[in-house]
């Protein structure tokens, strides 16, 4: 769609320090983003400014330094660790004769690489189109109006107007398809609500270890790697928790500072799993020096998607990278779990996470000893499916004696499902 320089894999990075906290970015995190995108960093141009330059974002002297670095290293692309305006992007491209990509476009590119499901690809494309719609200005500088003449008379639009119309049409089409996906997700949540199955959502900064924890406790095979945005598409799994029964655990996309608003808007359906969860597991890389700032960034995104009022359990992950830190559960003055210290990669302390989940999600518990005759074998099988049998013995008549512990809601569901003979099997 654009008559612009082609993107490549060899990049010059640009990072500017600003005194304002809301404009400051992290260079180390930027280099991890670049690596996650599969781009080779040739050099990093750094500088300091009080405010962005109107024309080049950086000063004119720094812009020439970037141009010299591009020529010296024969770079294919310039990556900025900041959000650029369309005019700033165009001006730097014209000066350096090289493709320019800002932080937002870089994150969108990583998301496009990671998307696997149909829904995820649609969401990424919608975010990319929203971002692109602001960058169509003079994208076709070599074309004026469409040619006239016999057989060549067009609708009278400039190429820019045509591009905008095509973008609007495509975005409208994608929104319609995503609305259908959102309705399907809503139906799934309605079904879980009717079944009274609690939902627990993993949230946290990108690369905090959410997917590793998810794989450990659910025996799933979700892609997990030491890179930013390894997980993009949400994954749901059933999990059995002591004294709670079945729960749904959701692994979601990681957050990052200054997460593009286009992404937050596009991933609304996905983030609904976080917004409507019964409990959030806020996973933190406790060995990261920036953990306090990362936690604040996650809380900011949760507030933006209106998910900041949901009960939260802090999971301090990667304790194997620290010295003299043992797995433990921290509790408040009422004895309620508020923090769990563990290492998913080293498989340390994960049983404590199950204990904390059991205490936070447990409702009314039913404990009975049942005397089940041999003719009620299906009922015994159902109880085994619920994983609620603590002990099993047999009396002299061949009756099965079962000690069961299960949530009251599961017991009531058994009664409603035609298992009313349970009442007659209760010994105590």
From TrEMBL:
One of its GO terms (molecular function) is hydrolase activity. Its main location: cytoplasm. Monomer. Associates with the 50S ribosomal subunit. Residues 198-365 form the Hflx-type G domain. It comes from Thalassotalea fonticola. It comes from the Bacteria. InterPro entries: EFG_III/V, G_HFLX_dom, GTP-bd, GTP-bd_M, GTPase_HflX, GTPase_HflX_N, GTPase_HflX_N_sf, P-loop_NTPase. The gene is hflX. GTPase that associates with the 50S ribosomal subunit and may have a role during protein synthesis or ribosome biogenesis. The keyword Metal-binding applies. Belongs to the TRAFAC class OBG-HflX-like GTPase superfamily. HflX GTPase family. Pfam families: GTP-bdg_M, GTP-bdg_N, MMR_HSR1. It is found in: Cytoplasm. This is GTPase HflX. Keywords: Cytoplasm, GTP-binding, Hydrolase, Magnesium, Metal-binding, Nucleotide-binding.
